[in-house]
């Protein structure tokens, strides 16, 4: 499973404080911790006013790249910011994100189609100018439009991470069914596409959030989720990823599961 580390995000108060103070040691420590814990990508979100965003992202990206070679997921709601910030990355990463809203796709997909940018991937949200569709059928209509644009620009499905948009369970009782139906349909139509989600969104405003997160993760992976925006330093969550992949037959002879344990990524360290 592709793990997009979520811990460098300006919407987190301690990260926002570090960004404001330009505390490079804090950002570097969070990047290295996630890299050492098994992340595949490091998400980088400034959460500052757009006028300050490109400069702030450059500083953050430079900090991250000083301590890890992992590719970066550049996280901004502005396609114009993404179009500038990706140039600061030493290797191809992920544009996070586009959607059916506004000119996002027509800004980012042409960049991905440029020679030399073939390694870049993108997270595509299933929302449009009307907002987040309430039912799976309408989200799949947005998905169809996104894939039509991908075909137009020559973007292969395996470069796209579809985000069905996870909503709070406590305010959307049909949300789980909608997400699972959407994930299942997307996976059936495009076996090589990636499907991602911000796992912890499901449990906002609920007690013992981790139980809801863990349950949703297993259901989503069973439906076809193969990418997740999550905390890789959470050994229980990461262990659940490896265990679920093994149970779904995605890990031959449980070699990845065993390897993760031996590397100390999951489970409790053995006493010497």
UniProtKB/TrEMBL annotation:
Pfam families: Pterin_bind. It comes from Blautia luti DSM 14534 = JCM 17040. This is Methyltetrahydrofolate cobalamin methyltransferase. Keywords: Cobalamin, Cobalt, Metal-binding, Methyltransferase, Transferase. Belongs to the vitamin-B12 dependent methionine synthase family. GO terms for biological process: homocysteine metabolic process; methylation; tetrahydrofolate metabolic process. Residues 1-248 form the Pterin-binding domain. GO terms for cellular component: cytosol. The lineage of its organism: Bacteria, Bacillati, Bacillota, Clostridia, Lachnospirales. SUPFAM superfamilies: Dihydropteroate synthetase-like. One of its GO terms (molecular function) is cobalamin binding.
